[in-house]
Amino acid sequence: KDLRCRFSSLGGSGCWYSCSSSVMLVGDSGVGKTCLLVRFKDGAFLAGSFISTVGIDFRNKVLTVDGVKVKLQIWDTAGQERFRSVTHAYYRDAHALLLLYDVTNKASFDNIQAWLTEIHEYAQQDVVLMLLGNKVDSAQDRVVKREDGEKLAKEYGVPFMETSAKSGLNVELAFTAIAKELKHRSMKLPNEPKFKLHDYVKKEVRGSGCCRF
Ligand SMILES: Nc1nc2c(ncn2[C@@H]2O[C@H](COP(=O)(O)OP(=O)(O)OP(=O)(O)O)[C@@H](O)[C@H]2O)c(=O)[nH]1
Ligand SMILES: [Mg+2]
């Protein structure tokens, strides 16, 4: 499915392209999908008791990528097993998927393979995919090493970064990287160098420790 991009000319303010695309957040219940979205959309962290998502929900956010407005429609899925069939129905329309695990929860990491199988089955073949290890602010509870995430991502050829919905680490970057990739795919300008999502992520990513900045 193509991205919807259009050229707009509005009076004296010139012309611009705008694109709209859909991004879906997937992963086990409790990994922080809703918190990541709220952090990105509102710049806040949802502390307090955990309210598990029921069914599916979405928020819109407009980003400006290299002078082009990209509207991201971000679908927040429910990680709980009983809502899986709802999620399946939405995969087909997603241009990008952010697949999350929780670095303080080994089971959520072990389930990534099953998620990838599901993605392979239901999502578009050319879907933009990125693996995120969330909750890196909880250093003392960490059970999944950064290297383990990197290794798994490399194995499957997907870009990877660690994030924290709580501190905000790499949250903006995760969505910006996706938006850039989608924008480049939909507007192939003749003189523009090809955008490489892997390289961009490698260059821009911040580590969770003090010494990686
Ligand atoms: N320390 C820490 N806690 C987080 C972070 N992100 C989410 N949490 C906590 O983890 C719990 C689950 O977060 P949610 O965002 O609701 O999880 P979810 O993936 O949307 O879960 P479902 O909706 O059931 O699929 C909540 O108690 C959050 O406060 C994070 O980056 N750091
Ligand atoms: Mg949720």
From TrEMBL:
The biological process GO terms on file are: protein transport
EC number(s) stated in the UniProt entry for this protein: 3.6.5.2
Is the keyword Transmembrane assigned to this protein? no
- What's the superkingdom here? Eukaryota
* PROSITE patterns per UniProt: RAB (PS51419), RAS (PS51421), RHO (PS51420)
Membrane-crossing residues? none
Provide any one GO MF term from the record: G protein activity
SMART domains given in the database record: ARF, RAB, RAN, RAS, RHO
* Names of the cofactor(s): Mg(2+)
Reaction equations catalysed:
GTP + H2O = GDP + phosphate + H(+)
Which keywords, in A-to-Z order, does the entry hold?
Answer: GTP-binding, Hydrolase, Lipoprotein, Magnesium, Metal-binding, Nucleotide-binding, Prenylation, Protein transport, Transport
Q: Write out the similarity annotation.
A: Belongs to the small GTPase superfamily. Rab family.
Please report the name of this protein according to its UniProt entry. Answer: small monomeric GTPase
Q: Which organism is it from?
A: Meleagris gallopavo
